[in-house]
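Section 3.1: Structural characterization of target chains.
Under the original work plan, the team committed to producing a structural model for every single-chain target entering the pipeline before any wet-lab resources were allocated. The record below documents one such target. The sequence was received from the expression subgroup and is listed exactly as submitted; it comprises 150 residues.
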Amino acid sequence: MFRNMKVSIFILSSLFASYGCNSNKSTRDIYLQEIAKTEADFKLSITSHGVAEAFFLHADSNAVVLRANDSLIKGRTAIRNYYSSPQFKDASVNWTPDFIEVSASGDMAYSYGRYVWLLKDSTGKENEYKGIYHTIWKKQTDGSWKYIWD
């Protein structure tokens, strides 16, 4: 009888463990979908609000953006000011996440993929800049996601 009880406890434990894993998986999937939607909304806001405002709206209050020459732009206002420069006036950017991961606690995430910037120079000639991006996302108290590193 004791042996059957051990087997029963093992079976029940396994069922609860697998139930927990399935539950976590669906929660994880929800978080992954949230980040994918946040990425898509960010791209759309560039079209509707412009580069400077979109980067401002999607930034956490402590956000940092890495730019050329390893320079850092720190804070939402500095980020808005940087992207308000004339070179970004008619700029467009497109990107696609190749990978998204979310922390087990569901409060942090990261994504990376390829981007393409189209920027006009002072003569009006359009130049294309391609690269790889890496964004770190933080869940806000209202449930939205904002980037803290881009």
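Helices lie at 2-49, 51-57, 76-83.
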